Amino acid sequence: MHTLAPKSIASYWRLLAGLLPILLTGCASAGYQMPDLSLDSLLGSNQAAARDQPVADIGITRCDQLTTHEEDWDRVKGVPPVDSEDIDIATAISACEKALAEHPGHRRLQAELARAYAEAFRYDEALRLSGLAAEAGSLYALIQQGHAYRYGRGTPKDIDKAVNAYQSAAKAGHAGAMNYLGSTLYQRNGWGDRSRAKSWYRKSADTGNATGMANFAQILLIDGEQEEAFPWFERAARQGNAFALQQIGTYYAVGGEPAIKAPYTALSYFEKAVEKGRPSASIKAAKLFIQGPGDTGSRLSEGERQAKALYWVKYGMPTLSIHR
Asked: Omega into 81 within 30° of 0, i.e. cis?
């Protein structure tokens, strides 16, 4: 099967991206409906076929151990994912450059080195490598491309291209990409793409993805569907999703359908949310001790309530950090 060289593909994409506004304007004025212009349709079937091919087995490299991401479907089993704040950037770049030199064109290593470059703010190199990995079929690299276009890293900010990149990975079944696509659509035109965002969040939720469940529940809550949102938050909370834990705690703190007011139950959820990395839940816990009669603080003296409130404010502070 003949495939275009990466430089040729990139050139075609840039050309089409430049012509797209003109094509859309002309077709809209003539009353025509434009076809799908996602990355899948622009790059053709070769990329889709590449995604179905297993990544070459090269064993575990030092690069994998230093940079593997939980959202990378190519990651080696048994290698724990590395959080961004835990990456030793200089060591990771050196190890990944060495591994990629030994295994040229390996899409997992390209995506991992792209991640290390991005952490070092070397966005141009990260964009180039993630582009090569995406063309070779890496869904995680497509997500990296989406991030680059969404936030303008190594390229001018282009939300439409970000949507296309996320959508390509989401259509392949990547639940994480579905969430990124949903949030990007939600923010792109304010409330204009809200229904599409909700649809993608639901698709992610249906895969059992905790973030998708929490996102879908939150849109249900915004839509006034409080009772419908609760079980989705519960399912996400059972998987340890910090935002869902905080939201369930809020249900019990406020009371009303479908949860009765139960401050101490709320407190336990807020504590778990903080432990899972959501420090704002500690503020909600503190508020339980400074509210009126009938809540947690009503059983305590004024001094005791103040001490408890201060304790919970301080409880969340150690988890606060500044991320790169």
From this structure: no
What is the radius of gyration, based on Cα positions, of the chain? 23
Cα distance between residue 242 and residue 265, in whole Å: 16
**126 and 153 in contact (C-beta within 8 Å)?**
yes
Q: What values do phi and psi take at 119, rounded to 5?
A: -65, -25
% residues pLDDT > 70 (the chain): 77
| pLDDT, mean of residues 176-198 | 86
For 311, the token pair is 């304790």
| 138: nearest Cα among 39, 52, 36 | 52
Q: For 101-122, what is each residue's pLDDT tens digit?
A: 999 999 999 999 999 999 999 9
DSSP state of 219: H
pTM greater than 0.85: no
Checking if the pLDDT of 260 tops 60, the result is yes
Cβ burial 227-236 (10 Å sphere, 16+ → b, else e): eebbebbbbb
Number of neighbouring beta carbons within 10 Å of residue 73:
16
**Residues in Cβ contact with 156 at an 8 Å cutoff, skipping those fewer than 6 apart:** none
Task: Tell me which amino acid residue 197 is.
Answer: A
Sequence-separated (6 or more) residues with CB below 8 Å from residue 125:
114, 117, 154
What whole-number distance in Å separates Cα of residue 83 and Cα of residue 68? 9
Helix residue spans in the chain (DSSP H):
6-30, 39-43, 45-51, 62-67, 89-102, 107-119, 123-135, 139-151, 159-171, 175-188, 194-206, 210-222, 226-238, 242-254, 263-275, 280-287, 302-316
Contacts of 74 (CB under 8 A, 6+ apart): 55, 107, 108, 111, 138, 140
* Tokens coding 74: 């190519």
Please provide the size of the chain in residues: 324
